[in-house]
What does this fold into?
Amino acid sequence: MVTRFAPSPTGWLHTGHAYAAWIAWRMACVNGGKMLLRHEDIDFSRVRETYYAGIEEDLRWLGLRWPEPTWRQSLRGSAYAAALATLQQSGLVYPCFCTRREIAVEWERMGQAPQMGDGLESFRYPGTCRDLSADERRKRMEHGDAHAWRLDMGKSMDFCGELAFFDRRFGKVLVSREAVGDEVIARKDIGAAYHLAVVVDDAAQGVTLVTRGEDLLAATHVHRILQAILHFPQPEYLHHPLVLDHEGKRLAKRNDVLALRTLRERGTSVDELVASAEHWLRDFF
Ligand code: GLU
It folds into this structure.
């Protein structure tokens, strides 16, 4: 079994990360496999160099070990570009020239409150650029208009037929058109995006069990479609609960009180810190 922990080096790890990392690590240990560490750092505007080492130090303190060298997504641009080219040839993605503001205005024009995007994008894409003619697309691209690439969910699902993924907690989950909107798979500024990078890397690294927070369950619908189009093997999943603060909100990176380095300095024991993850996990070994 190969699992992975995939933090973004945009802040210090907190108790929520300890929970997630512990799950990835213990699942691998119990099943005689290994956990990989992958820095998800494609969003270079938010990344700080000091966090890479800080994250690794915190994970070692928790007792976690992984094979070196660790992967950095920022060095994987050519692999993402190759996958994007395949998707472009498939005709299942389209260039999107919209700004965030234009998307909000479009929702207003349609007389609807923006539909929330399940925590993936702040709201679902209303489909404006999906119906542009080939001619219009070409003209705007030749003109150098900045554009992202979106996965056409409707077309992709017609192309792939019935798809499902298996989650150790939720069982067999059918991929559904309604789960997500047309998500961005390559950003204007970066040339890749979370969904594409994760799917390409999980396949390239031979990940067989993806463990991550249940807030990303909707994202897995997109990932399963991308795996099918790109002929990648499908991993198994385990979407775990999120650690919430005393107000029931998910932990933010800036929550320094719960940062692992603060807890470590205060003498918190690792056993105490990972007890709830260990307890929850027992049913899924
Ligand atoms: N980088 C993501 C995060 O920090 C994890 C994504 C994943 O595990 O697929 O939440």
Summary: Residues 6-8, 40, 198, 212, 216 surround glutamic acid (CB under 6 Å).
